[in-house]
Prior knowledge:
The chain has 145 residues and is of the alpha+beta class. The chain is 41% helix and 14% strand. The chain has helices at 18-23, 40-46, 56-63, 69-75, 79-90, 95-99, 125-133, 138-143, and strands spanning 25-27, 30-34, 104-109, 115-121. Strand 3 and strand 4 form a beta hairpin. Helix 4 runs antiparallel to helix 5.
Amino acid sequence: xxxxxxxxxxxxxxxxxxxxxxxxxxxxxxxxxxxxxxxxxxxxxxxxxxxxxxxxxxxxxxxxxxxxxxxxxxxxxxxxxxxxxxxxxxxxxxxxxxxxxxxxxxxxxxxxxxxxxxxxxxxxxxxxxxxxxxxxxxxxxxxxx
Length: 145
């Protein structure tokens, strides 16, 4: 007699509101949240462990609160509106500038408010660069998976 297998449950997609990313969510005795202006120096102390260092463009975007704005906007809208805002943000900018609104730095802070971890989330730049060298316009390259 054949053994009946249970169906695996599909992973539940959890929609995270932008405000939760900004304010943070509790995690293992601390909080994970978007980096705030003035905190990039601490992140740069932690990120080299992952082979990453925030460049001047990212540091400036953190301090003027523009890093990740398109991603945060996307969390509060539907996919179509997100794509429209994203494409609009790309006009007239070079690749490095195009990555600013769609990149994000998250930090983990302990219960005392000290930053103890950092993570930089970026679009797949190697894919974008490869597509650009093939003559594909930036807008198309950045929208590609």
